[in-house]
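To close the chapter, one final illustration. This time we ask the reader to focus less on the individual chains and more on the assembly as a whole: which components sit near each other, and how the overall shape emerges from the parts.
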Amino acid sequence: MNSAYGLVAVSLVVAATVLIGTFGLRISRTTSDFYVASRTVSPLRNASAIGGEYLSAASFLGVAGLILAYGADMLWLPVGWTGGYLVLLVLISAPLRRSGAYTLPDFAEARLESMAVRRVTSVLAVLIGWLYLMPQLQSAGLVLRTVVGTPVWAGAVLVAVVVTINVLSGGMRSITLVQAFQYWLKLTALAVPVLFLLIAWRHDTAPAPTRDAPPTFPQATTVSVGADVTVRVEHPVRVVLHGRLDGRAQDGPVELTAGEHRIARDSTVVFPAGAAVPHVSGLPESTDREWALPLSGREYPLYATYSLILATFLGTMGLPHVLVRFYTNPDGQAARRTTVLVLALLGAFYLLPALYGVLGRIYTPELLMTGRTDAVVLTLPGRLIGGTLGDLLGALVTAGAVAAFLSTSSGLTVSVAGVIAQDILHGGVRSFRAATLLALFVPLGLALAARALAVADVVGLAFAVAASTFCPLLVLGIWWRRLTVAGALAGLVAGGGLAGTAVVWTILGGPPSGLAGALLAQPAAWTVPVAFAVMIMVSLLTPRSIPPGVARTMVRLHTPESLDVDRGTWRPKRV
Amino acid sequence: MSWDDAQPGTAGDSPPRPGGPRGDEGPASGRTPPKRVLVTSPRTRAARRPRRPVTREIDEQTGLGEAYMRSLMRAQLRLSLGVCGLLGAAVGGLPLLFVLVPRLRELQVLGLPLPWLLLAGLVYPAFVGCGWWYVHQAERNERDFAELVDRDT
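The assembled structure is written out below.
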C-alpha cells in the first residue's frame, strides 16, 4: 500500500478525534459530566457510542485474520461478542441502570453493602481493563508498521498519547461523541471497501475456497517478510529469494526443500503461480474444504468452541467499559431499548469481517506464511483492486483500524481511570487525571515488554476472566436474594484466581500442548461453573452475612421508575 | 399517580383486588336486621377504613409487599431465563448438531455452506428479533406490576 495515503488517513483520524475531544472540554465542567455525560445522550447516539467503544482492534482486524487462518470455527467469536449483549440485555441491563451505579465496584457496594467486596471488584476491574488494553496498543504498533513503516513501539505510544489528551481534555461527554463518531467510521471503513472487493471478486470469476487442497498462490507472488519467521514447507518449491534463508545470505533462485526453514526479516521471496503456500510454524495446514467446516481447526474443537461461547456470551457483561455506558441512559427501560439498538449495530458490523476472511483466503494466502493474518483487512484493497482506488480504500480501512484502537482504548481508559481515582486515589478531577496516566501507561509498558500474541486471543482471555468473576457477581446479585458477602468474595477470588492463572500461563509461557493446553488457552468452560458454584455454596453456608438492606435493594433494582417507592438512599460516591 | 394521591384516607375508592389488603370489607349490617336500618353507601364505609396502597406495603417491607416484589422478580426472571434457554438451545446446540450430524456441516443452502449462512449471517437478525421481543415482554411485565400496585393512576 502507498504509505503516504496511510499516513494521511492516520493523521486525519487522530486530528478528528482530538478536535472532537477538545470541543467537549467547553461543555464538560463538573465532575458528573466527566462520568456520565450528564445523562442527556440520545439512545441512538448512546448505542453508537457503545458500539464504537466495543468494536476494538480484535473485531476490526483480528476476526478476519483468525477466519483466514482457522476458518469456520472462528465465526463463533463475533457471534459471541454480539450474543453477549443479548445475555446482558435480558439478565442485567435494566436492573443495573436502576442500581444507579457508575462502575462495577459501585454496584458491588450498593448490592452487598461491603467495602471488602468493593475493593476486590476494583482490583479485578483494573486488571481486566489492563488485559484488554494491552493487545489494543500492541496491534496499534503492528498496524502503523504495516502502513507507514514506523517501529512497533511508535504506534503504541502514539495511541497512548492521543487517548491521554482526549480523556484528560473532555472526560466522558466528549468521549461519548467521539465514540459514536468512531462506530460509524468503523462501519463505513469496512463496508465501502467490501463492496468494491466483491465487485472485483465477481469480475475474477468469483472463485470460492472449496478445493480439497491447501491454499496456493493464485499468481506469481512476491512475499516481503517483515519479521523473522520460521515456515514449514510441505512441497519442495523453487523460489527467487533475496535476503537470508536458514542463516545464509541468498540472492537468486533457490530450492525450498520440505521441512522447516527460517527466513530473516526484510527478505523477499518470489513464489511461482500455483505453488502451495508454506505455513508459519505453529499454524496447522488445512485444505480449503476442511477450513470451511466447523469443528475441524484447532485441537479439541468441541471443547474450544463451547468454552469460547461461554466466555464471550457471559464475559461481555463483565467488561469494565461496557457497564459505565449504561448510566448514560435516563432509566431502566431506556437502557433496555439502547441495548437492542446496540445488538442491531453490532450485527450490521459483524456481517463484514467474515467476508474479508474468505476473500483473504483466496487472494492474500501469503499472510499464512508471514503469520501476520491480522493484516488481512489492510492488505486486501491494495491486492484486489490496486491503483489509486486501491490506495484510497486501503487508507479508509487504515482509518477504521486507528479508530478501533482509539475508541476502545479511550473507553477502557475512562473506566479504569474512574475505578483507580475513586477507589485507590482520593477522588476529584485531579485524581482522575493522575489515574488516567496510570490506567494507560501500565498496559503500554506491558505491551512493549510482552511477546506478541494474536490480538483476538488476548481479548478472548480478558472475556474469560470477566465471565468467571463479574458475571456470577452481577447475575446472582441481581436475581438471588441469598447472595452473601462471604459468598461473593469467595466466588470472585476463586473465579478470578483460576482464570487469572490460566491467562498468565498462556501469555507468559504459551500453553502446553494436549488437553491441558486447551483447558488453559480457553479456561471459561471450567472457571465459570466453578465461580458460580463457589459463590452459591459459600452463600448458602453463610446465611448470616446476607446484607441487611437486600429487600430495599431489590425494590431499587427491579421496580420501574414510574412507581413511587422507597428505593433507599445509596448514592455512588462521586469523584 | 404520585405518592401524595396514594396517602391513606384519600385513596381507597377503587375496587378491591384479590390478594390486596383488606379487600373484602362490605357493609357490616347484614346479620341481625333491626327495624330501622341505616343505609349507607359501601364506598363511604370503605373510605372510613383507609386502604393502604401497595407501594406502602413495599416501602414498609411487609409480607404482602415482599410477595408483590417476588411476583415481579419471578415474572421477569422467568422471561429472562426463557430467552437464555432459547439462546442456549439454539446457539449451544449448533456445535453438538454439527458433531452428531456431520453431513450438515457441508450442506449447501442458497449456495452457501449451512454453518456459514447461520453463523456469519442469519444469527444476527435473530439476536435483534429476540432482543426486541424480550424488551416488549419485559415492559409489559412492568406495566402489569405498576397497574397492580398503583392502580389509581
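The longest helix of chain A spans residues 152-203. Residues 221-276 of chain A form one domain. With these observations in hand, you are ready for the problems at the end of the chapter.
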